[in-house]
Amino acid sequence: MKEFIKVLRRFALPYKGYMIGAAVANLMSAVLNVFSFMSVLPMLHMLFGMDTSSYSFQPWQLDGIKDIAINNLYYYTSELIGRFGHQTTLLIIGIFLCVTTFFKTASYFFASAVMVPLRTGIVRDIRIMVYDKVLHLPLAFVSDERRGDIIARMSGDVAEVETSITSSLNMLIKDPILIIFYFCTLIFVSWQLTLFTVLVIPGLVWVMGAIGRKLKAKSLFAQSKWSETMSQLDEMLGGLRIIKAFIAEDKMLARFSHVNNEYRDASSRVAIRQASAHPVSEFLGTCIIVLVLWFGGTLIFRENSPIDAPTFIFYMVILYSVISPLKDLSKTSYQIPKGLASMERIDKILNTENPIKEPAQPVEINGLHESIEFRKVHFSYSNNPLEVIHGVDLIVPKGKTIALVGQSGSGKSTLVDLIPRYHDVSSGEILIDGINVKDLRIHDLRSLIGNVNQEAILFNDTFFNNIAFGVENATMEQVIEAAKIANAHEFIMQSENGYDTYVGDRGCRLSGGQRQRISIARAILKNPPILILDEATSALDTESERLVQEALERLMKSRTTIAIAHRLSTIKNADEIYVLHEGRIVERGTHEQLIELGGYYRHLNDMQQL
Q1: What is the arrangement of strands in the sheet containing 576-581, beginning at the earlier edge strand?
Q2: Per-residue confidence at 68, pLDDT binned at 50, 70, 90?
Q3: HSE of 365 in the Cβ direction (CA atoms, 13 Å)?
Q4: Are 359 and 439 in contact (CB under 8 A)?
Q5: How many angstroms separate the Cα of 104 from the Cα of each of 29, 110, 116, 320?
Q6: With 0-12 CB in 10 A as exposed, 13-18 as middle and 19+ as buried, what is 440?
Q7: What pTM value is reported for the model?
Q8: How many helices (H) and strands (E) does the chain have?
Q9: DSSP per residue over 428-495, as a string?
Q10: Pick from 14, 178, 459, 521: most CB atoms within 10 A?
Q11: Cross-strand partners of 577
Q12: Would the pLDDT of 165 be above 80?
């Protein structure tokens, strides 16, 4: 219950007005329910000839209010009978019962309806919080976690929180109010019967609690299997071309079936335990009714009985009314643990600490005026103690183009990812115009940098929106100009709707060269002083490479550029080339100088000439 209260404090407090409204409506529903049935009591007594006394009105006062209330209720009923007769009075009381029932059900409906904005609002807030958290966590988090698992937590787990916790919240507001009010009424009617009932009911609560105790662990396991199912689906969709190429459909189907069967078994165990709760509560509720009927009957059969038959009928009606919210309340003992299990998985994302911190007193920067400097930079990933970058010293003067080359895994991409603080250095520092990048606002730092990567990442949107991505208030003229410089305008205009044409999921409707030129146009429109090219032409054919290289040369003019390349022909004109090997700079110089040196760069160049 402590965990549940913590969840409510975090997410339900902004909606406390809705909870208060629901509480008031549920209280009104309980009052009307009791009052409507209580009004029938005098009629039952007089119809059955059990009461032939005459009554006079007594002034209302707190002292002896129970006897006064009963007397005045009988007085008003006898007045109605005397004026209209038994039949008409019975009809009037029936109409009164219908009216009070209408307002009771209206109050109940209002109590349920007012909780809908709370329930949907909490779910919306959690989804936005998870999405925002993932957006701002470093790239290492997404690399370490499976995408399918993140998607499962944002979909299945959040939906489970809505089904289990927020739905239970309605019961936790309504049922205690009904139970307390009904119990007060039961005590008012007969304290002897109520005492007996109170001694019996805890057994129901204990049994229902026993059903739900192990449900959280089972639900946690089932949700983890759901995450594995989503991960398998994500891998299949992302690797469908390779699966078909290697005729691996049966293998992938077997993997998915295995995980899906595990999820089915786990969720079945949870569902069976859930399903047992209703029949058990129904059986125990019936047992309580039977026991109270027996005990009440023994009281009625005694001489000088403290309760008569019509009052006992009224007592049983109210008791039955209290049994229903008790059973509903017992359902929360297995619904809430399921939701808490999902909330625990969501919190693994929400509570993940972001190591990329904004500076307390950021330094203002409006451009690159001198240089970018790597000073004794070391770096290792948090989940791996082995260093990826070993003491790199490197200066990139303003307006110059430097190139990073080396075998795969030598640390080239990791090194440039340290500049915009996708990761933070383990030791050493990176300076822009002598200012440590950790002292700059992340927004200001990244606004200085444009990226063109090997994999051109496009969104399922129009050409215009993909080029204008991240640039506020870009005009069509500016987008067209950027596309022309990137050699993209011609093929965009040949599409069915020009710049309003959708490019498909991750740009699937375009060729590799077209996607890359859209990516370059995006960088051109941003117009950053620092440009990072991460193997921007390595995956292209000769013709596409020529067009992309022309676009890159236009983009690189008057910009400070760091280019990562496998094809050495694309960086021959760089002002300086740095050769990385196992995270260290082993050679540096121009293309000609490194060829004459006859070292590692010469070896790479000779291999590409074969």
Answers
A1: 449-453, 530-534, 560-564, 401-405, 576-581, 584-589
A2: confident
A3: 27
A4: yes
A5: 4, 10, 19, 17
A6: buried
A7: 0.71
A8: 23, 10
A9: EEEEETTEEGGGB-HHHHHHTEEEEESS----SSBHHHHHTTT-TT--HHHHHHHHHHTT-HHHHHTS
A10: 521
A11: 403, 589
A12: no
The alpha carbon of 347 is separated from its chain's Cα centroid by a whole number of angstroms, namely 9
Chain position carrying tokens 């990072």: 532
Torsion of CA 504, 508, 514, 520, to 10 degrees: 70
Contact 186, 318 (CB under 8 A): yes
Count Cβ atoms within 10 A of the Cβ of residue 341 and give its class: 0-12 exposed, 13-18 middle, 19 or more buried: buried
DSSP state of 360: S
* Average pLDDT over all residues of the chain: 80
| Cα separation, 604 vs 407, whole angstroms | 9
Question: What is the rounded CA–CA span in Å between residue 528 and residue 368?
Answer: 9
* The pLDDT of residue 493: 92
High-pLDDT (> 90) share of the chain, %:
10
Count CB-CB contacts under 10 A for residue 175: 22
- In the block, tokens 């640390």 appear at 411
* Single-letter amino acid code for the residue at 605: N
Instruction: Tell me the three state secondary structure of residue 391.
Output: strand
Any residues with CB less than 8 A from the CB of 274 and at least 6 apart, and which?
A: 215, 334, 338
CB 347 within 8 A of CB 74: no
Q: Which tops the pLDDT comparison, 363 or 301? A: 363
Do residues 185 and 353 touch, judged by C-beta distance below 8 A? no
Measured CA to CA, the distance from residue 308 to residue 313 in angstroms comes to 9
Architecture of domain 2-350: Up-down Bundle (1.20)
pLDDT of residue 66 exceeding 70:
no
> What dihedral do alpha carbons 316, 320, 325, 326 form, nearest 10°?
80
Q: For residue 203, is pLDDT > 70?
A: no
| 545, 533 Cβ separation under 8 angstroms | no
Chain mean position to CA 332 = 21
* CB neighbours of residue 44 within 10 Å: 18
CB 267 within 8 A of CB 260: no
Other CB atoms within 10 A of residue 116 CB:
12
CA-CA distances (angstroms) from residue 457 to 452, 480, 538?
9, 20, 15
Instruction: Judge whether 382 and 355 are in contact, CB under 8 Å.
Output: yes
Domain with CATH 3.40.50.300 in the chain: 371-609
Pick the CATH number of 371-609 from 3.40.50.300, 3.40.47.10, 3.90.550.10, 2.40.50.100: 3.40.50.300
Can you tell me which residue has the tokens 């290792």?
380
Could you tell me which residues are beta bridge partners of residue 206?
Answer: none
What is the SS3 assignment for 55? coil
**In angstroms, rounded to a whole number, what is the distance separating the alpha carbons of residues 20 and 36?**
24
DSSP 363: B
Are 335 and 281 a contacting pair, CB within 8 Å? no
Tokens of 350: 């929400």
- Name the nearest CA neighbour of 167 among 111, 119, 215: 119
Q: CA distances (Å), 570 to each of 11, 410, 461, in order? A: 54, 19, 31
